[in-house]
Design brief:
This protein is an alpha+beta fold and about 290 residues long. About 35% of the residues lie in helices and about 25% in strands. Helix 8 packs across helix 10.
C-alpha cells in the first residue's frame, strides 16, 4: 500500500510496541458489529441526539439531557470491555471492578487524578453512556426495520470507604436483555493489545470497520469513495471540497498508523477512494484471554 508515494510499511514508529502486540496476539477482545457500521461522537456536541448513516442503516444515540451524549475515546474503550465481558462470562450482569483503578486499567487507560484527569473523565463518560439509548434503523425499498435498545436496564454507582481509608468502587450494571442479545449475536473479534495503543477515536473506528469489512467482503473487493468515507467517518468536517480534503488528510494519517500494525489487510488508495481487496485478514476467536 502506498500513500503520497511513501511506503507506509517504513513508518517511523516504535517497533518494540509492534513486536509486543504481535507477541500478545491472543489478547483478543470483542465489539458488537453495530459499532462497525456506525459509532459514537468523536467530540462533545451540544445536542442530545446523534445520528450516523452507513448505506441503508442508521444508528442514533439519544442521551439524557441532564448528562449529555458520550463522546471520544473513553466510551469506545468501555464498549469494547463490555462486549468482551459478555463474550467470556455470558452474563448481562457486569461488575466494573473492586476499585476505580482496577476498572480504569481494564480499559487500557492510566488512572490520573485532578479535574481533567482520567478518573474524572471516565466517571462522566460512563454515566453518559449508560444513560443513553441506541436506535438502529434499516430502510430498503418499502421495508422499514428498526430496534430501540437501552444499553443498561439499571445499575449502582457509589463510593464506599473501607478499612485503611481505601476507596472501593463497588459498582455493577445490568445490561438490557435486548442489548445483551444483540452483542451475543454480533460479536466481532479485535486485537486488544493493538486497540489499547490507539489514542484516536477515529483510528479505533477505522480499525473496527476494516476488521468487519474483511469478514464480509467478496473476492472482487470493494471500492468506497472518499465522499462515502466522509459520510461515515467525517461528520465533523464541513460539506465542502476543503472539508473533504481535510477529512481525507486526517483519515490517511490514522490509516497509516493502523496499517503499521495491521499490515496483512490488502487495501489500495486512489484519488477516487479506498479499495479493500479480498484477503485472509480477520482475527480468529479464542476461548480464553
Amino acid at each position: 500500500m502506498i500513500i503520497d508515494n511513501v511506503n507506509i510499511k517504513n513508518l517511523n514508529k516504535n517497533v518494540d510496541i509492534k513486536k509486543n502486540i504481535n507477541k500478545n496476539y491472543k489478547s483478543i477482545g470483542y465489539i458488537t458489529s453495530i459499532f462497525a457500521c456506525a459509532s459514537i461522537p468523536y467530540s462533545k456536541i451540544k445536542d442530545n441526539f446523534f445520528k450516523k448513516i452507513n448505506g441503508n442503516t442508521s444508528l442514533k444515540i439519544i442521551s439524557d439531557p441532564e448528562y449529555g451524549l458520550p463522546y471520544g475515546l473513553i466510551p469506545r474503550m468501555v464498549m469494547i470491555w463490555l462486549c468482551t465481558e459478555v463474550k467470556f462470562k455470558n452474563s448481562n450482569i457486569i461488575y466494573l471492578g473492586k476499585t476505580q483503578n482496577e476498572f480504569i486499567k481494564k480499559l487500557g487507560i492510566v488512572p490520573t487524578g485532578g479535574i481533567n484527569g482520567s478518573i474524572s473523565r471516565i466517571k462522566k463518560q460512563v454515566v453518559r453512556l449508560f444513560h443513553s439509548i441506541i436506535s438502529l434503523t434499516s430502510i430498503k425499498d418499502n421495508e422499514h426495520k428498526f430496534v430501540n435498545l437501552n444499553i443498561v436496564d439499571n445499575g449502582i454507582f457509589f463510593w464506599n470507604k473501607k478499612h485503611n481509608s481505601k476507596i472501593h468502587w463497588n459498582n455493577k450494571i445490568i445490561l438490557s436483555k435486548k442489548f445483551f442479545n444483540k452483542i451475543k449475536s454480533t460479536f466481532l473479534p479485535i486485537n486488544l493489545s493493538f486497540v489499547k495503543n490507539l489514542r484516536s477515536p477515529l483510528a479505533i473506528d477505522i480499525y473496527i470497520w476494516l476488521i468487519w469489512r474483511s469478514r464480509i467482503i467478496n473476492k472482487k473487493g470493494i471500492l468506497i469513495s472518499w465522499l462515502q468515507l466522509k459520510l461515515k467517518f467525517g461528520y465533523n468536517y464541513c460539506n465542502s471540497s476543503k472539508g473533504l480534503y481535510n477529512f481525507k488528510k486526517e483519515f490517511l494519517k490514522q490509516l497509516k498508523i493502523i496499517y503499521f500494525f495491521y499490515s496483512n489487510i490488502s487495501i489500495e488508495i486512489s484519488n477516487i477512494g479506498l479499495k479493500i481487496n479480498y484477503s485472509f485478514t480477520y482475527i480468529p476467536s479464542f476461548k480464553k484471554y
